[in-house]
Structure formats: C-alpha cells, structure tokens
C-alpha cells in the first residue's frame, strides 16, 4: 500500500513524487514530463486585515473555506479537512503542506493535459497584536499558452480572481457580509480556479 502523504510532507515535490508512484503502481509508468521548456511564474498577492492572525485564520483558513470566499461550492472528497493529503472538490486540489497559519496545495496531473505544476499557498501573518496580513501566492508554468500576450492575460485574470478572494477573506475575517458573487451569463464569474 502506498502511503504518499504523511505528517512529514514538505510540499509540492512530495505530491509530484506521489502521483508518479501511484501511476507506476497502476502499471502506467511515471507521469511524463509533458512540458520540455517550462516558464514558471509566481503571483504574490496580499491584503492587510484589522484582526489578529490567529483570529483571521480561524475564520478563513480551513481548507474548504475557499468555497465561501471564492463563492463556489467546495467539499472534501478525500481525507479530512486540514490534514495532509486531503483533496477538495475545487480543482481536485491536494493539501501538501501546512503550518499553524498557512497551507499549500497543488492540482494533480490530469490525463491528456500538460502538467503546469499549479499550486498555491495561503498564509495569515501577524503584523501587530491586532492586525495581520493575508498572503496568497500562486506558482505555475505558463509556457503552454500561445504567446506573451496570452500569458499576461492569464496572469492578470488569475491576479484579479485571487485579489477578489483576498478582499472577500478580509470582509469575512473583519465580521462583514460578502456582496453577491459577480455573474456572467448567470454563472459565478471566474468559477473554480483553472489549472
């Protein structure tokens, strides 16, 4: 029996190794390196919150709290919320790292799609005894997009989607109520994060 996720998990490298082990154990061999020349980007975002970090994290830091602040449905489909290896329905994202006030997730390899190593980290960082900062950082390979213009458009779309998420987290952590989700053709704008 493969035990890929343990309490000593250190990050996304473990998830990649685990996925290769599972594929190999299923007779398919390790996942191929589909992208010969990746171009990794990071999208660091932050917002200041007028609440202590521990209080902020208690309000918006559970793994499936993403559903509330992205305003899309979220359920834990494997494992337990907050434990290494938990998988949430949004992007089938796997919890691969965590601290007292942060977590890191990755999206899995998907058959027929290039693997772009999409992952993110959410952290509540204390500033003072009564204020904190929420940091959300995305890292991914954008080399699969057609050109620099398409890569910049994708970066801006992701930055806008997660800036809105941070603003919603701030509202919730400070005791406010979220405005209705923006709509486009009747569906939630942006929807679940895309790989």
Please describe what this structure looks like.
With 195 residues, the chain is α+β, with helices and mostly antiparallel strands. The protein contains 4 helices and 9 strands; from the N terminus they run αβααββββββαββ. Helix 2 (53-60) packs across helix 4. It starts with 11 loop residues before the first helix and ends in a 7-residue tail after the last strand. It has one domain: 2-Layer Sandwich (Alpha-D-Glucose-1,6-Bisphosphate, Chain A, domain 4).
Short descriptors:
195 residues, alpha+beta, Alpha-D-Glucose-1,6-Bisphosphate, Chain A, domain 4, two-stranded antiparallel sheet, 27% helix
CATH architecture: 2-Layer Sandwich
CATH topology: Alpha-D-Glucose-1,6-Bisphosphate, Chain A, domain 4
How much of the sequence lies in strands comes to 25-35%
N-to-C SSE string, H for helix and E for strand: HEHHEEEEEEHEE
The major pleated sheet works out as: 7 strands, antiparallel
State the strand order across the main sheet. 1-7-6-5-4-3-2
Rg over CA atoms, rounded to whole Å, is: 17 Å
Percent range of helical residues: 25-40%
Structural class: alpha+beta
The pLDDT mean sits at 84
Distance between the termini: 29 Å
Number of helices: 4
Count of DSSP strands: 9
- Unreliable stretches: 1-15, 20-25, 185-192
User: What is the molecular shape?
Assistant: globular
- Number of structural domains: 1
Fourth CATH level, the homologous superfamily: START domain
CATH class: Alpha Beta
